Amino acid sequence: MDAWWQCEIPYPSVPQEVLNAADSVRASLPNRYCDPAIAANLFEEVIDEFLLCDELGLNVLAVEHHAGINSLLGANPLLVGILARQTRKVRILSLGTLVSLRKDPVRIAEEYATADVISRGRLEIGFVKSGGTEMASNNANPVNNIERYWEAIDLITKALTHQDGPFSWEGKHFTHRHVNIWPRPWQLPHPRMWSATGDPETASEVGRRGMVHVLVLRGPEGTRRAFQAHRKARAEAGLPKVTTDNFAYAALVYVGDSDEEGRRVGSQLLWFLNTSLKSAPQYSRFLPGVVPPEMAPSVYRTAPRADAALPANAEKGVTPASQNARRLISITVEQAMEQGILFAGDADGVYRQIMEFHDKVGGFGHLALIGRSGPMTHAESVKGIHNFARDVLPRLRAVKPVTAE
Amino acid sequence: MAAMNDAKMERLPARGWELEVVRCGSGKPLLLLHGFQTVDPRARFVELLGRRRSIVAPSHPGFGLSPRPDGFETIYDLTRLYLDVLDALPDEKITVMGFSFGGWLAAELAVMGSPRIDRLILVDALGIKVSGRETPDILDVFNTAPAEVERRSWHDPARWAPDYNAMADEAIVRRARNWDALCLYGWHPYMHNPRLKDWLPRIAVPTLVVWGSSDGIVAPSYGKAMCDLIPGARFALIDEAGHRPEIERPDAFVDAVTAFLEG
Which CATH number characterizes residue B163's domain? Predict the structure, then answer.
């Protein structure tokens, strides 16, 4: 198993009374609450933490979120560029530029090819569907978001692999008549691609395309179901079975010197859920396209109707991201550990929690660690990285890919 | 309160598929193009209009129970569809009345100049850009708190704002379909065609622009600006009504419309 350390560079310094008064801590919270001096310190600390990971042989992962306290990485390609140059050994996963929010996928392909060349072939390219507040922040139509997602991925893939001079793309959502990027990527045919999704329909497409399939904070049931949909779609399409190397899970992870320290310091990671997910109804349950209309009665109502006949999620068999978020906001440390959302404790305990979860969901070959969030300090984060890299990572590395059944 | 009328939900053939349509009344035809919500056959204004006119009120593709074919997701598609609908109606001349989002469609149709249209009525219509680039004319209903959208939609929101906890599943599913379809058609450019304003002077049929005086989705001043761009158009303000004067003041609304139709 491989491991990838990440920090979304959240901004925990907005006064709690401001957060309490705001209907949303993303998209609409005025940026006067973001002090650039504090932001600069956060970037410096976290980039140093990424470089520490490089020294210790722990892969790094850069994510993108927009306009909120949860993350200052709206311009994630800039961080990817910095990591491509400043790290020297480890692999770099961008998870990722939010492709359905950008007008020109060809420009994204240029950014990725450039980062792959600067890093001499250490880049991995992840795709995330986006949604919620990011539709407002990026003027992106939420209803056909998934169509743009796949069309952008198709165009980026072709731009990265086509070596025979300009080609033309006149698709439904993107038009670019003269595509011929320089440089082309270092890796052939292109850097490995990842996709993050919990819904079975998208999971099936991820499976058919053979991408690395990553689940973020979904807990054992949702994760297992999504991985199953991935395998089932491949089988139905007559494609060869994949190994556990095609599956990844992202959780909050902290390794302390003692079990008590690991849990105490690690519990600060729940800030990401308890505080930074707060989102106004227009960005969540009333966002167009967020659930199929048949599911709207359970989503629109604040109290169930006595005669409500439609079971929640009957169609998709899984909670949509917005409902998952509502569930996560109120989660406790104990619940988070029980559900495989937080792995925290000493090295033995964290290794055991990871492997128990691994076995519950049918195995995965990559663990993404959300290692710093909320009020966690630089010193605490550095300690957690050292402890994980020294005492957990070697044991995870011994878990070899197997054909996933 | 449900009005006693003969309104029926039927199917209207169009382009090889069928639209849900409310039909009622008798007389010369009146094509209603709905706004954010489909036309409720029990609404009082429907009954009142039906006393004088034969009403045809289709649900736009994706709204209500109307299917939306793959790829059909633009104003271009909707306006061509309604040209087809106009052509297919048996009557030689048809009055078109568009509400809100449907007012945008009605204005586009009138600009194109269908020979079937004899009169045009625009009710709290969207579709044009009036103010400067940093002043939105139309409330962003998708990115604004739902309670604020309702407050600005009605003169009396306490009476008219929807209560989802009390609403039947079927009605919520309908509203969710309407919401998704509206977003697909109207997200960008938001609820308007940047070029339409320059072409409104092409409208060559008698036109009435009706506005709720308390409309907080799109203000009466916007309606007046729209009216001024249409040669010879008349403007009627309905007091104590918001974005949907036909719902909040059905009698006053129908009086204003009747005065125009029979004037």
Answer: 3.40.50.1820
